[in-house]
Design goal:
Mean pLDDT: 75
Low-confidence stretches: 98-108
Radius of gyration: 15 Å
Distance between the termini: 9 Å
Structural class: mainly alpha
Order of helices and strands: HHHHHH
Helix content: 55-70%
Number of helices: 6
Largest sheet: none
Strand content: under 5%
Length: about 110
Amino acid sequence: MRAGEPTFLAAVAHARAVARRDSASSEVLGRCLGGPDPDHGGLAEVRRVLVATGARAAVQARIERLSERSPEPSERARPHARGAERPGALPRAAGLARGPFRGGEGGA
């Protein structure tokens, strides 16, 4: 999020904000993502929007569904890059799947 690169999580949050005609959430996403490096306050606003729009829960549920469908092939896959040793580590580290932040406010 800090790099301002488009992510699935941000896209889901934006789509949900637009569908709900939630201009305040859309404004936060537009102001804090894709621009200059957001400060801690801006990141806190983005986290609030990710939770309030339901985007965080929706993406977490999707990750869990996909993980349940194919846990074995992803665990057997050969890592091709440094850090790819554990395919499930990234979503957990981001607080999106079966991690310490599950159901909480942090980690988005």
